[in-house]
């Protein structure tokens, strides 16, 4: 009886060992290899404070395995008690290809892992200090640590990611220079821009009616190219206004623009041989506030009834408030803006609208100076190049998707982030 | 004198232009510091220029009051409003509220400026209606296209319109995402090239009329 019971207990014990303890041992002994070819280096093309970590992809990469990164601010191993876990993420994430770096600054193969360590919440990387890192693969309770790697963050002098942008600027500059050279040697055809042809008509009409001309330079300051273009066109318009001996009103929203436009207008009257009729207060400041300025200019239009209104430069919500009031007074209205969201309002309320680049072409069109006309030709060649690049980019992107290949990225990366 | 009026500004424009083109490609903190410093300079210059602007404004309206030009009463209102706001602003050190209560300066802003700005902005709705009325009278082929596109987009954007004619939602999205977006991008490419060309012209001294006159 007792021997039977003992045998039963022995069997139970063996079953328990077989189904309970052995798997536990197996689990505890499950091994995972450490991340391979781990490198740490100062992240290039930045202002410093960033260290890039790169390591090879592993066969076990998947949702069940995680990578843990520990850091220590010293040259000692990043495994000590004061080592800090700075990131933990699934092992099938954070690849070089996700970093969207162009091929010429890619630190490793697209399939390798890439993790930039940068200052953030509770973490600060200072330039010139050494930091140690360990990348660990973690699966359940098991983990495998990489060798310790070290790097020093440093600021860099060149943003290599933007080299394609620089090349495009240099290419465009060369095209402009070539066009100016060509324009000096032979006459270049300019297509008609009705809005600019109407400038003389508008000034003539104002002269006949004995009414003033209103010229606005927009909402921007001199940092904006559109304001500079508006100021340059003002010079051309003012020369003709002076020769017709018509009154000119230029209300401003920015005092610096006002000061510059005063000088431009004065010079225009000098060039027209009419310095005696120049009025210092033809350019005047109203306010920097958007709607106060609008109300004031609207009032000016209704009281002075200018025969011609020019709206050049960049505009926001005030565009329609200004032009619709101007239209109600029966004035000839010519607008020129690069504010694409306001273009529909200008097109519907003004007699002529210079759309986008025509604003920048106006100076050359009105002056007909070879150098100015040359830059216009340069712009057109630039547009042709951009159109060609659009076609090339579309073809390469489509080919890349259809073939599932990586090679189109050699071209597509060159065309990225050109703005 | 010519050097100060002409050559020095051109030289400064060239040097600063080249430096700040390069600054875009240099991520080093020295480059960032330079940009920050120059931005501060601009703010300081802007502050001084504002004195110039306010002087111009006072002069303009003083002349109107002195000559009793039509509407000179408005100039008087401007003087009263501006000097009154400056006075109450200085009195409370520019604070709009003090000890939980609104200051006179805050009152002027909340009960004068804000409603007036709101009123001006609200007028926009009526102006859009009147501008739309004029534009949508289908006098030409372009106006007819504009009218049809506008009707479809309006129908597609208003819940009732899309409920009545469900297809307008999809057509609206197509008009906005394909036709509108592509044209806007084309305009932006032209604008960008124009802006770069103008900037290069100014940096290299080809365009000089912003200095007051285009010729020597």
User: What is the overall silhouette of chain B?
Assistant: extended
How much beta of chain B, percentage-wise?
A: under 5%
Number of strands of chain B: 2
**On the 0-100 scale, what is the average pLDDT of chain B?**
90
CATH architecture of the largest domain in chain A: 3-Layer(aba) Sandwich
Helix content of chain A: 40-55%
Strand order of the largest sheet of chain B: 1-2
**How many strands, which pairing sense, and closed or not: the largest β-sheet of chain B?**
2 strands, antiparallel
Helical stretch tally of chain A? 11
CATH topology of the largest domain in chain A: Rossmann fold
Strand content of chain A: 15-25%
C-alpha-based Rg of chain B, rounded: 26 Å
Low-confidence stretches of chain B: none
Low-confidence sequence ranges of chain A: 14-29
CA-to-CA gap between the ends of chain B? 13 Å
Average predicted confidence as pLDDT of chain A: 89
Explain what the structure shows.
The complex is a heterodimer of chains A (419) and B (216). Helix content of chain A is 45%, strand content 17%. Chain A is an alpha/beta fold. Chain A has three domains: 39-151, Sandwich (Immunoglobulin-like); 160-190 and 368-419, no CATH class; 195-367, Rossmann fold, CATH 3.40.50. Chain A has a six-stranded parallel sheet with strand order 11-10-9-12-13-14, with helices on both faces. In chain A, a hairpin with a 7-residue loop joins β1 (39-42) and β2. The radius of gyration of chain A is 35 Å and the shape is elongated. Residues 14-29 of chain A have low confidence and may be disordered. Chain B is mainly α and 216 residues long. Chain B has a domain at 137-205. Chain B has helices at 2-25, 29-67, 72-91, 104-136, 141-157, 159-164, 167-203, and strands at 97-98, 101-102. In chain B, α2 crosses α3 and α5 (141-157) crosses α7 (167-203). The chains are: A alpha/beta (419), B mainly alpha (216). At the A-B interface, α2, α4, α5, β11 and α6 of A face α1, α2, α4 and α7 of B.
